[in-house]
């Protein structure tokens, strides 16, 4: 396949993915909006005023960036894992596998689909958050780069999960038992400076902490940790997961006999 | 001329230790209509899986139009279209989307993809259903959808794994006509089927696999010459109480109106009719008890199983 044909193939996969998650928007785009709206109402309007300020900001303003990024993380991850595993389960993945499509184009196509859903949901949640808080933007560049890189990272994670999954249970295990706890403990609702030294140290082992803090920096200009360290860690994870996924695709792990 | 498909010493052992292919050699000429037959579990789907990249071979060589899959699998795959045994499309997509996507996976620009999708959906009688979800199509329509999908990139080699399973006879025959047409136009076709009448009617050359071994690989004409005996069922005009003693042909009465006779290769049907006329037996109609290829197939597979047991 020449470069033009590969581009056509890539666009085909992206359109297919985009069509899939917009066709079932009631399952993909609506639920995160309802969930995060509830967070805004409960933590922002009801409990937030009693908590007071966090790192010099109203509590609702402090938690909004984390909640937006949480919806980006869960949606980019679940889009890729459900779509890829669904294609495996229905065997429609074979359409792609028997074609000359290079493995990296398959991977990039699915990742772009996951990033698209993550960012669309993130945008909707951001718009809803304007009803509850006075969002200000400190750095557009940091915001865009962090949200895109985070969506890429978790789309890659979803792809790895999809490759290994053998049943629908396997699709939900990682988001339920790993992703959600790490997200909640990643500093969405609090600054890690509130924690004792030991738990601060433990929190630094959570990669999601770096993304949430970098994203919060984009909005509020504050972060518990270095911005460049966040970029470095996200970058390393992306490279490692990309290489792992390509390796499994070329070996045919879970998709070829 | 470069063969459409060349397989040399192909082995496949699955992770569970089952060896599905024991070093088969096979060649399919360009333009051929080739039957790949065998009982369930013979290894046919494994061969097709290896050719289409869904199964990794253990060892051996596979070349598609001279391109070794080991050296340039993407290019080799661009030559082939596959119609698998089981439905493998997204049931929530429409036939139109399925064909456009398939064309996209082969790098075909959208405009050309639309033209081809319309062409093949129309030829398969699915144009009216182009916007229905695939899950709402009948079994026959789903089979035709998979054929249309496999053709959208206009492959030089089309591999059909049980394409007419569960399809009614009318649609099956229209599919046969279509396959003959595209074969005449130059597409090489490899067909696996359990309908041996289908293979006999369509294919010029044939290979029979059994338990991962190639037990026959020849032309259909030469293979059918090996049929040394045919059994006919005769419907009689008058009831017959018992077989006449003067009949020298091996025969048995199934009931008083039905006679079954076995004709050996060297005998001709005139002998049979002369003997029946002498005994004043009048025949209303006659049919083959079984398809000729079916008789031979059962014989060859049975022979292979016996020799394996003896070994």
Rounded mean pLDDT of chain B is 86
- How would you classify the helix and strand content of chain B by structural class? alpha/beta
Cα end-to-end separation of chain A: 24 Å
The helix-and-strand class of chain A reads mainly alpha
Overview of the molecule:
The complex is a heterodimer of chains A (257) and B (311). Chain A is mostly helical and 257 residues long. Chain A has one domain (3-251). In chain A, 77% of the residues lie in helices and 2% in strands. Chain A has helices spanning 3-23, 25-28, 30-51, 59-90, 93-97, 103-129, 140-164, 168-184, 197-203, 207-220, 227-251; strands at 53-54, 57-58. Chain A has a two-stranded antiparallel sheet. In chain A, helix 3 runs antiparallel to helix 4, helix 4 runs antiparallel to helix 8 (168-184) and helix 6 (103-129) packs across helix 7. Chain A is elongated, with a radius of gyration of 19 Å. Chain A starts with a helix and ends in a 6-residue tail after the last helix. The mean pLDDT of chain A is 90. Chain B has 311 residues and is of the alpha/beta class. Chain B has 2 domains: 5-225, 3-Layer(aba) Sandwich (Rossmann fold); 229-292, Alpha-L RNA-binding motif (Alpha-Beta Plaits). Chain B is globular, with a radius of gyration of 23 Å. The two termini of chain B are 39 Å apart. In chain B, 40% of the residues are buried. Classes of the chains: A mainly alpha (257), B alpha/beta (311). The A-B interface holds A 1-2, 4-6, 8-9, 11-13, 15-16, 19-20, 23, 86-87, 90-92, 94-102, 252, 256-257 and B 14, 49, 52-56, 73-75, 77-78, 80, 82, 84, 86-92, 97-98, 100-110, 149, 153.
């Amino acid at each position: 396949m020449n470069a033009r044909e590969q581009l056509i193939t890539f666009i085909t996969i992206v359109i297919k993915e985009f069509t899939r998650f917009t066709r079932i928007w009631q399952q993909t785009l609506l639920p995160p909006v309802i969930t995060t709206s509830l967070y805004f109402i409960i933590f922002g309007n009801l409990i937030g005023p009693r908590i007071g300020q966090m790192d010099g900001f109203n509590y609702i303003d402090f938690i909004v960036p984390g909640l937006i990024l949480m919806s980006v993380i869960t949606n980019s991850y679940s889009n890729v894992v459900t779509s890829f595993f669904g294609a495996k389960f229905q065997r429609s993945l074979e359409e792609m596998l028997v074609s000359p499509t290079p493995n990296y184009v398959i991977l990039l196509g699915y990742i772009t689909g996951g990033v698209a859903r993550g960012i669309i949901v993130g945008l909707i949640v951001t718009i809803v958050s304007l009803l509850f808080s006075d969002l200000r933007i400190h750095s557009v560049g940091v915001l865009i780069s962090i949200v895109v890189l985070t969506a890429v990272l978790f789309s890659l994670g979803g792809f790895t999960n999809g490759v290994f999954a053998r049943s629908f249970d396997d699709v939900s295990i990682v988001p339920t038992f790993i992703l959600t706890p790490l997200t909640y403990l990643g500093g969405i609702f609090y600054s890690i400076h509130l924690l004792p030294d030991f738990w601060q140290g433990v929190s630094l082992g959570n990669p999601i902490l770096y993304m949430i803090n970098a994203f919060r920096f984009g909005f509020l200009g504050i972060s518990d940790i270095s911005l460049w360290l966040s970029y470095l860690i996200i970058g390393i994870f992306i490279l490692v997961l990309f290489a792992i996924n390509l390796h499994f695709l070329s070996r045919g792990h879970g998709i070829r006999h | 001329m470069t063969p459409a498909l060349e397989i040399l010493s192909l082995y496949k052992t699955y992770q569970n230790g089952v060896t599905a292919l024991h070093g088969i050699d096979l060649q399919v000429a360009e333009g051929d209509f080739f039957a790949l037959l065998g009982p369930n579990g013979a290894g046919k789907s494994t061969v097709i899986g290896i050719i289409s990249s869904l199964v990794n071979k253990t060892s051996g060589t596979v070349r598609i139009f001279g391109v070794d899959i080991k050296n340039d699998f993407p290019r080799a795959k661009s030559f082939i279209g596959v119609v698998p045994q089981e439905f493998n499309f997204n049931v929530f997509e429409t036939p139109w989307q399925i064909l456009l996507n398939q064309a996209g996976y082969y790098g075909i620009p959208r405009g050309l993809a639309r033209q081809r999708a319309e062409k093949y959906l129309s030829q398969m009688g699915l144009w009216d259903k182009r916007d229905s979800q695939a899950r709402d199509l009948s079994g026959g329509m789903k089979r035709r959808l998979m054929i249309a999908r496999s053709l959208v990139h206009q492959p030089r080699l089309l591999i059909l794994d049980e394409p007419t399973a569960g399809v009614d006879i009318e649609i099956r025959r229209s599919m046969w006509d279509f396959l003959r047409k595209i074969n005449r136009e130059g597409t090489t076709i490899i067909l696996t089927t359990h309908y041996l009448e289908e293979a006999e009617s369509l294919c010029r050359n044939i290979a029979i696999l059994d338990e991962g071994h190639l037990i026959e690989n020849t032309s259909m004409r030469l293979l059918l010459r090996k049929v040394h005996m045919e059994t006919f069922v005769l419907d009689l005009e008058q009831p017959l109480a018992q077989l006449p003693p003067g009949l020298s042909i091996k025969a048995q009465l199934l009931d008083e109106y039905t006679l079954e006779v076995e004709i050996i290769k060297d005998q001709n049907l005139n002998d049979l009719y002369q003997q029946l006329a002498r005994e004043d037996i009048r025949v209303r109609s006659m049919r083959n008890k079984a398809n000729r290829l079916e008789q031979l197939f059962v014989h060859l597979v049975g022979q292979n199983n016996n020799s394996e047991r003896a070994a």
